[in-house]
């Protein structure tokens, strides 16, 4: 299957971060974000098929969390985001209003039961956690941006937040 990456680039897997990254063996350049001239749609489908982790739902209850929680999220970036690029798009040009319309649509689809946050995050999230169905792992207070943390810690397990805005973009969070 085609990756959508420019000639010379390939997808590799980081053992230390347990995430895919982009590597050019000829130039020895590696990066977390896709290189310029990437076909975002082709890459999105390739990553969804070959670099997605199926997460266990029962893993949380078996661990001592020490005040930490586990969440997944779906991120939609916009041109005002602190880093307006992602694994899907080298340069994000959508406005904040356009991003809000997109994520509101995702929120409605998740809340209606038409799809799950994890399924949508795999192909639509602008965060590298998309490869893990949006899973951010365990985190405690002070580990995330303030708005994200506040929204996450008030959720009960299984609950989904409304749209949350941070410097990174717009999020829907599931605990």
UniProtKB/TrEMBL annotation:
Domain of life: Eukaryota
An example Gene Ontology molecular-function term: peptidyl-prolyl cis-trans isomerase activity
One Pfam family recorded for the sequence: WW
InterPro entries per UniProt: PPIase_dom_sf (IPR046357), PPIase_Pin1 (IPR051370), PPIase_PpiC (IPR000297), WW_dom (IPR001202), WW_dom_sf (IPR036020)
Keyword Isomerase annotated: yes
Catalytic activity entry: [protein]-peptidylproline (omega=180) = [protein]-peptidylproline (omega=0)
Keywords, comma-separated and alphabetical: Isomerase, Rotamase
Gene Ontology process terms (BP): positive regulation of transcription initiation by RNA polymerase II
Domain named WW: residues: 3-37
Domain spans labelled PpiC: 66-175
GO CC entries: cytosol; nucleus
SMART domains reported in the protein's UniProt record: WW (SM00456)
CDD domains to which the protein is assigned, alphabetical: WW (cd00201)
Enzyme class: isomerase
EC code(s) of this entry: 5.2.1.8
Matches recorded under PROSITE patterns: PPIC_PPIASE_2, WW_DOMAIN_1, WW_DOMAIN_2
PANTHER family the record matches: PEPTIDYL-PROLYL CIS-TRANS ISOMERASE (PTHR10657), PEPTIDYL-PROLYL CIS-TRANS ISOMERASE-RELATED (PTHR10657:SF4)
Protein name from the UniProt record: Peptidyl-prolyl cis-trans isomerase
Organism: Friedmanniomyces endolithicus
């Amino acid at each position: 299957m085609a990756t959508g990456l420019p000639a010379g680039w390939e997808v590799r897997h980081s053992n230390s971060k347990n995430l895919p990254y982009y590597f050019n063996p000829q130039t020895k350049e590696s990066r977390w974000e896709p290189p310029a001239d990437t076909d975002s749609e082709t890459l999105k489908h390739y990553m969804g098929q070959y670099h997605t982790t199926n997460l266990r739902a029962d893993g949380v209850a078996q661990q001592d969390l020490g005040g930490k929680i586990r969440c997944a999220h779906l991120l939609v970036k916009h041109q005002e985001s602190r880093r307006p690029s992602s694994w899907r798009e080298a340069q994000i040009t959508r406005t904040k209003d356009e991003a809000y319309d997109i994520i509101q649509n995702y929120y409605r689809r998740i809340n209606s039961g038409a799809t799950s946050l994890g399924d949508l995050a795999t192909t639509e999230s602008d965060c590298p956690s998309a490869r893990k169905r949006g899973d951010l792992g365990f985190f405690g207070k002070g580990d995330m941006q303030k708005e994200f943390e506040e929204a996450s810690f008030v959720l009960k397990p299984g609950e989904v937040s409304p749209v949350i805005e941070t410097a990174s973009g717009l999020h829907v969070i599931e605990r």
